[in-house]
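To assess whether ligand presence alters the predicted conformation, the chain was also submitted together with 2-hydroxyethylsulfonic acid. Input:
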Amino acid sequence: MPTALVTGATAGIGAACAREFVGAGWRVVGTGRREERLTELAEELGDLFCPALFDVRDEAARDAVLAALPGEFAQVDCLVNNAGLALGTAPAWESDLADWKTMIDTNVTALVSITHRLLPTLIERKGSIINLSSVAASYPYKGGNVYGGTKAFVRQFSLCLRSDLAGTGVRVTSIEPGMVETEFSIVRNAGDKDMADKLYAGANPMTGEDIAETILWVATQPPYLNINTIELMPVTQSFAGFHVIRD
Ligand code: NDP
Ligand code: 8X3
């Protein structure tokens, strides 16, 4: 029975991943900062779920929790780097620099740090790394600024990791969704649920479960097969053209 470690399992895509993987018989270590959410998930999912309470940006707290993982929960076969966030949609010059740094600290620095921490185990177990990038990595949009930059990093880091890991048997995938209805937009809009609801209204967005099913599918491909990238969007979301300002 394999083990997955899913960061950001207290909401959205990560919570759906925990349910999906446990449903498929995996052990799951689910991380997050909200203890009550982890406790609820542990009650729901039972012995196959191990809650791991830490802020992904706090390496000391993370290492203490990972070092104390019980038995086979420490033998991670699949790392799902899902914890992440967008803060704000303002143009660059009106954005809060502290928000930019929080996105970089969480989406980039913490992601590479936990990956580095788990690489020896993943190499030993010929495991897999599944990183949550975004369509924002490839398609710039107004207000995407640093969020898009962090997700472009995640996509390219994933592909470069594949190069380094050639010959180890470790697989790496960049998952690149468009609009998924989770707590993402509430967080992005500083807790304004009405604004988030308006974004999703009538748009028939994807669900956390849609993405979790895709992630489980990636994780359960035969060992000789690597899914490099997957881009997913709701049918209602598509591309804008170039924007031209005329004199
Ligand atoms: P949610 O806001 O619903 O969930 C985000 C998760 O990340 C929560 O479990 C949260 O846990 C965790 N998290 C955030 N910051 C930290 C931190 N500092 N330490 C630990 N955990 C943290 O968003 P989604 O499920 O939608 O997002 C998951 C990933 O998918 C993100 O990387 C996002 O960028 C990406 N994505 C989302 C899309 C969307 O449209 N929703 C589209 C494309 C990509 P807690 O607050 O308990 O710590
Ligand atoms: C978030 C998806 O479409 O809001 O990563 O940029 S989108």
